[in-house]
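Adenosine monophosphate-protein transferase
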Amino acid sequence: MELKVIKIEKPDEMNFILGQSHFIKTIEDIYEVMIGSMPNIKFGIGFCESSGPCLVRYEGNDEKLIELAKKNALNIGAGHAFIIFMENAYPINVLNSIKSVPEVCRIFCATANQTEIVIGETEKGRAILGVIDGAKSKGIESEEDIKFRKEEFVMARNFYLELREKARETGKEIT
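Predicted structure tokens:
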């Protein structure tokens, strides 16, 4: 077996989800989850077929993101792997719905970090062995770091609650 490291090629702040499934119908079912998740979501999905013609299947609603998904799926080339790139949404907005798709076996990562995929390759094919998601830890948080983290969470939660209340008052959706 040969080990390879494949870098995910994407813009710095772009979120993506990398997973594995077990059936060609995955692409349609993930498309349905994504399109129904949020009103303004843009996305592209690439899926590595692992039998028959072994093509990269693709779907989405944004050409730029579809091209990104196709390119990265082909670079990964591991059977039944899928990758979803998204804009106007975060993985947390769709992750549980994707995990509930019957064909989905596992999620390797959901991140905007620079990411590398560790691949094992044999004569038969490729497998995702692991994911290097972002940078190595540099230390342990201090009391000051903990205070900052908790204050940031409270500010973000309060901002969201204010938005939700305004949306209720005006009858508009939060996007």
